[in-house]
Write a structure and sequence with these properties.
Length: 278
């Protein structure tokens, strides 16, 4: 596995591969890798000749009171996992490599950036879209893969790619879960043993909502409020549980099809996200 921090060095390597006729799949990450990330790496191998991963903790997508400084950085362990997964090239820039001057030009997503996660984390999706656009310009992949666990992020990036006519196929990878149903996340490491035992309740609540909708329940607000009440009665602090349309994440009506229930709730220190398509 080749490792590059320099943008110029990475571009030179990838340019040589393209001249040899190789296609490129790209999986951007913030490191602290788990089985969900590695699943995306394996999926990427099925879409291109060369798989490029990146590790970069992007300051722009963290709010002033969020965990940028404490975000787990496990570079050597990450490299071991990537080598075992057969990754060809790792791009691991420093902030000086990726932001050699203040990033005064940014990508401003539409109003979807202010809903759900965006309401709880102002500026988050601006930071995500900006760094991903920058990474796309550097790597110039044919295919890029992102996990469905961050459902709103995937939608923002897909729409960005379409509207800017980027020649990149953006693929969503299914959420990888522990045996008890908890969606894998780098922030799960913040959970205490007792909190880790409690954490699967979030997925169970979403499963109950999904089944109720499939059974014909039409009062979506009541379903979501019931789930919020259950979580909060067990020590959670729930930001939202909401049934939305898959295509645009607008609030769903009973007449809509292809729904998704999305949720974010804090359990102790970490804030856990999950979703379930209906």
């Amino acid at each position: 596995m080749e490792i590059h921090a320099s943008v110029d060095a990475l571009r030179a390597t990838l340019s040589q591969l393209r001249r040899a006729g190789k296609t490129i799949a790209f999986v951007p990450t913030m490191g602290n890798l788990h089985a969900g990330h590695i699943s995306l790496m394996h999926q990427a191998r099925g879409h291109a000749d060369i798989v490029v991963a990146s590790i970069f903790v992007n300051r722009l997508q963290f709010g002033p009171n969020e965990d940028f400084d404490k975000y787990p950085r496990t570079f050597e362990a990450d490299c071991t996992q990537l080598r075992q997964a057969g990754i060809d090239v790792l791009f691991a820039p420093t902030e000086a490599d990726l932001y050699p001057e203040p990033q005064t030009y940014t990508i401003e997503p539409p109003d979807i950036q202010f809903m759900l996660e965006g309401e709880c984390r102002p500026g988050h999706f601006r930071g995500v879209a900006t760094v991903v656009m920058k990474l796309f310009q550097i790597v110039q992949p044919d295919v890029a893969l992102f996990g469905k666990k961050d459902y709103q992020q995937l939608m923002v990036l897909r729409n960005m790619g379409r509207q800017f006519m980027l020649p990149i196929q953006i693929i969503g990878g299914e959420t990888v879960r522990a045996e008890d149903g908890l969606a894998l996340s780098s922030r799960n490491g913040y959970l205490s043993p007792a909190e880790r035992a409690e954490a699967p309740r979030l997925q169970r609540c979403l499963q109950d909502i999904r089944q109720a909708v499939l059974n014909g329940e039409k009062n979506f607000d009541a379903l979501c409020q019931k789930a919020c009440t259950e979580l909060d009665s067990h020590g959670w602090q729930t930001d939202y549980i909401s049934i939305r349309r898959q295509q645009d994440l607008m609030p769903a009506s009973p007449e809509d099809h292809n729904l998704v229930v999305v949720a974010a709730s804090r359990l102790g220190t970490p804030r856990l996200l999950d979703n379930l398509e209906i």
